[in-house]
Amino acid sequence: MTKFLKLNRTGDKIPLVGFGTARITPEDTADIIYTAIKSGYRLIDAALSYGNEAQVGEGIKKAIDDGIVKREELFVISKLWNHFHSKDNVKSAFDVTLENFGLDYIDLYLIHFPFATEFVDPRSTKLTFFNDENKFALKRIPIHETWKAMENLVDLGLVRNIGLSNFNVQSILDLLTYARITPAILEIEFHPYLLQERLITWVKSQGIEVIAYASFGNTVFEEVPPTTAHLPNLLTHPTVTKIAQKHGRNNGQVLLTFATQQNIVVIPKSIQESRMKSNLDLFSYKLDADDIKELKALNANARFNDFFPNTYGFDLPIFE
């Protein structure tokens, strides 16, 4: 089984297993990233809105300085936040990201969400969906303007690949009518409770690879939409446990392998070195057809990263 996917246009190889940085406290981030790289991770998925990019950069720098890894062996991802979709703000926001990382370029830059909100300072210590008056304020900025500014980052040699996050088929269809550079990646929520099979099949048919976030489902989130509150914890689900015991693996490995066997990149996060290493160890065993069938049977079309007042403080059905 391959451990990498090859991206369109550049042919760059993205590891099937990477390390996520969301919800890591800034004070812990540098050491955790250093440990992750030391444990074998070569893909780091970050974002300006996570509030810890500078510390991610510190961890990367230490790993490079200590000779653990060379820059060209790393695949570094960040994302453009909603406040910065304007053509006048894309590069200035990206410059903050590049400064945070302390790098000359990054490997992949994604539009984080397919909607624009009112501008705030990109150096704000805590970026949210709200403006400086703590109000949710949408801005009328078309994605074609944002995408052209993303393409300009590629032209400048600052970004090798560009892509999308949390976009649906309709928004991607529109983008493909004008994109000079086809998106390399779509990053979406994916786990047995949310298969999105038609979306993934179509996206891959367009030459766009997929990164899965929230591979452990509702385990990842403190608050979930009320429509999903009845679902058992995915990480401890009896079906997942049974399959894990069958293969002599832990439940997390099963959920990650469920994605990687479908050539979907995963980006699990852990603060424990032992769990970091086990999350990487996905290629020495294989789920069989019955395992996949049982896991797919858990599908409930349950999206946990969705915009409800109890989760993010506003209602915006962008996935519908």
From TrEMBL:
<protein>
    <recommendedName>
        <fullName>NADP-dependent oxidoreductase domain-containing protein</fullName>
    </recommendedName>
</protein>
<feature type="binding site">
    <location>
        <position position="112"/>
    </location>
    <ligand>
        <name>substrate</name>
    </ligand>
</feature>
<keyword id="KW-0560">Oxidoreductase</keyword>
<feature type="domain" description="NADP-dependent oxidoreductase">
    <location>
        <begin position="19"/>
        <end position="299"/>
    </location>
</feature>
<dbReference type="InterPro" id="IPR020471">
    <property type="entry name" value="AKR"/>
</dbReference>
<feature type="active site" description="Proton donor">
    <location>
        <position position="50"/>
    </location>
</feature>
<dbReference type="InterPro" id="IPR023210">
    <property type="entry name" value="NADP_OxRdtase_dom"/>
</dbReference>
<feature type="site" description="Lowers pKa of active site Tyr">
    <location>
        <position position="79"/>
    </location>
</feature>
<dbReference type="Pfam" id="PF00248">
    <property type="entry name" value="Aldo_ket_red"/>
</dbReference>
<dbReference type="GO" id="GO:0016616">
    <property type="term" value="F:oxidoreductase activity, acting on the CH-OH group of donors, NAD or NADP as acceptor"/>
</dbReference>
<dbReference type="InterPro" id="IPR018170">
    <property type="entry name" value="Aldo/ket_reductase_CS"/>
</dbReference>
<dbReference type="InterPro" id="IPR036812">
    <property type="entry name" value="NAD(P)_OxRdtase_dom_sf"/>
</dbReference>
